[in-house]
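Worked problem 6 (solution included).
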Amino acid sequence: MQVAAENWERVFSSGNGNWKLTIEFGWARLRDVGLYAQEFMIKEAGSPSRITHSCVLFQTNPDLLPEVDGYFADPTPRDNFEYSNYTAYTVNMGDGWLNIGRISVNRRAAR
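Solution. The predicted structure is:
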């Protein structure tokens, strides 16, 4: 979560306005065992309106498909060593570039 926050701060550091966001996260037994995680908006504000406080809960007992080993938690999130290939797809919308897709190939899955 810390690395994700650092990356978002880098993206929005050049923007105007108050972009403060509080994200609480943890583990819980979610009602829908088909979900790996669920986000709950706690508060929104600003102009344009945006989430300012949120909670993300990760499923403690997910209903995994047979071909799914489980969660992958990147032990080195700052260097992307676990991924052998990364491709980003963008399109120019006239006002600027918009990310329309990202594909990362896990080294273990590529073997």
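Discussion: The longest strand covers residues 50-59.
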